[in-house]
Amino acid sequence: MLDPDDTHQADLRSGTSPWHAGLPRPPGEELNADTRCDVAIIGGGITGAMLAEHLTARGLQVVVVDRERAGFGSTLASTAMLQWEIDLSLRRLSALYGFERAADIYRRSFRAVEGLRELIVRLSLPCAFHARDTVYLAAGEVGPRELADEFALRQRADLPGALLGHELLLREFGFDRAAAIVSPGSAEADPLSLCHALLAQAAMCGARFVRDEAVAFDGLGRSAMVALAGGRTIEAGHVVLATGYVMPDCVRTDLHRVASSWALATAPQQPQAFWRGRALVWEASEDYVYCRTTSDGAIVIGGEDEETDDVERRERLGPEKTQALLGKLAALVPGVEPTVAHAWSGAFGQTEDGLPLIGRVPGQPRLLAAYGYGGNGITFSYLASRLIGALIEGQEPSWFAHFSIDRPDPARP
């Protein structure tokens, strides 16, 4: 259990989560002179760690800048449900962008989880990674008919899964809901251990880590520049902004907003409390709850989201939200032992279309960014590392436009 009290990071999350540091993270240095590199990554959380590992493996000189302890910001608040299903159903995404584009996005998210699994296995990263099915439950206005429509679209897109009615769902999983879609291909992990394992791998490949605050960026020249609060500068071929939910003023979009979410982890449960395969579980309603298990036998449940980034309000609502989540967990899993071992909350960025903001910062060709992950944080972190890596190498296939920072707001005519 880790709950560091860094000033800036307390704005991103509150309480204590159950995650562990795993491998020692590389120590941060203080620059005593200006420096140069191929890529400067601003932010040492899970996205920055994915980028650092990927870019150093490709032979680039990388400097990672973080004003706090790497991994102890938004990453520590993650529930690390590594799903390929995104916040907007395929049905709703198809209504916004058409079936072909929506299906392509879903398939790329599916491959992102598979790519992350292959990376973790290949590098033997210690992060409590386990492949899991997902159970997507009928809830709210989404009932059996809507789930059947969603399932038909997934079949058309060649996405795996099965549609379960009430009787089969209750018999197989113990969930008393009208219907569900059960799908393979997702996973769970300890996000802090994964972050630090990736940073350690990047360090072995030559990455440097600087403990300072980036206060200004310039991506207009023949090289990019980062000004640090300590008075030094970093000159780089490209600068990547991976600062979690702290979006700098130079990144402007009408699609993004910051909200708050709450989560808890129970004490370890008896084996009979768990459902089949310890699948990841989430609801099909707009304001959904989601749950998973941990390697030490706890159950994590999260949700109760609110459209606020007010830190004091988020902390004030903590006890109320914890009780609400406990009630929802007891209704979903009647045999659960409702002892709370950890309770926490955090800010998270989301977008109108449920898709991340990844790519070049408009007007700043050497400045790249990755934001707005919604409920797919680590899945989209992996996707961002590969997309940004390709952009740095001069590759830009047409599908990158799915996630571009300056894509039009689909809600506006």
Brief sketch in words of this structure:
By secondary structure, the chain is α+β, with helices and mostly antiparallel strands. 29% of the residues lie in helices and 28% in strands.
Detailed description of the structure:
This protein is α+β, with helices and mostly antiparallel strands and 413 residues long. Among the domains are: 25-78 and 192-252 and 354-403, FAD/NAD(P)-binding domain (3-Layer(bba) Sandwich); 256-349. The chain has ten helices and 18 strands. The protein has helices at residues 46-57, 74-77, 90-97, 99-123, 144-156, 166-173, 191-204, 311-316, 318-332, 377-392, and strands at 13-15, 35-42, 62-66, 81-82, 130-137, 162-165, 179-188, 208-211, 214-218, 224-228, 233-241, 256-266, 280-283, 290-293, 299-306, 340-351, 357-361, 364-371. Strands 1, 4, 5, 6, 7, 12, 13, 14, 15 and 16 form a ten-stranded mixed sheet that branches. Strands 2, 3, 8, 9, 10, 11, 17 and 18 form an eight-stranded mixed sheet that branches. A hairpin with a 5-residue loop joins β14 (290-293) and β15. α1 runs parallel beside α10 and α3 packs across α4. The radius of gyration is 21 Å and the shape is globular. Residues 1-13 have low confidence and may be disordered.
